[in-house]
Amino acid sequence: MDFTYHKKLSPIVGVILALACVETIVLHVIAMAFWGWKVAIVIGLLDLSLVVMLYQMILSFRLNPITIRDNIVTMRTGGRIGVPIVIDEIQQFRTTWSGEDLKARYVLNMALAAWPTVMFDLKTPVIRRGKSITAIAHCVDDPERFQLVVRQINRACV
């Protein structure tokens, strides 16, 4: 079963992409005026690589949904970040959370620049880049359905 998050995250990353395009043009003109075309080309290529990366990130949101298969929910943000969690390890879904909660070291906020629509605590920590993660937040397009499916599977396994 797949759950999307691109409807919530793509517009925000799209705004960042648009700003990066404007910045590329402005910086290219300034570099050309002050340092010449050689420097402007180098800076332009670096900026263009950022624009391409952001565009690929937006495409990857749709291509890499959150999946639930064989009692494992794989939380994803694009093609680069994926965290498999055994559904039995989900302790509870939170009903509310604050900005301070999301900034805590033990929280993996996969919603990027958006406000998360789901957040859940884990029974045992997951080690991610040297940090012990005990809660995951994400911006799922249909959070109620996601929580319902996870709870149903979790009850069936108990």
Distance between the termini: 20 Å
Annotation, overall tally of beta strands = 8
Order of helices and strands: EHHEEEEHEEEH
**What is the number of domains?**
2
Estimate percent helicity. Answer: 40-55%
Can you characterise this structure?
This protein has helices at 6-35, 37-63, 99-103, 143-157, and strands at 2-3, 66-69, 72-77, 81-86, 90-93, 107-109, 118-128, 131-138. It is elongated and about 65 Å long. Helix 1 (6-35) runs antiparallel to helix 2 (37-63). With 158 residues, it is of the alpha+beta class.
Can you summarize this structure?
This protein is α+β, with helices and mostly antiparallel strands and 158 residues long. It is 49% helix and 28% strand.
Keywords:
single chain; 158 residues; alpha+beta; 4-stranded mixed beta sheet; 49% helix; 28% strand; elongated
Set down the secondary structure blueprint:
Layout (H helix, E strand, L loop, with lengths): L1 E2 L2 H30 L1 H27 L2 E4 L2 E6 L3 E6 L3 E4 L5 H5 L3 E3 L8 E11 L2 E8 L4 H15 L1
Parallel strand pairs: 6-8
Antiparallel strand pairs: 1-2, 2-3, 3-4, 5-7, 7-8
Helix pairs in contact: 1-2
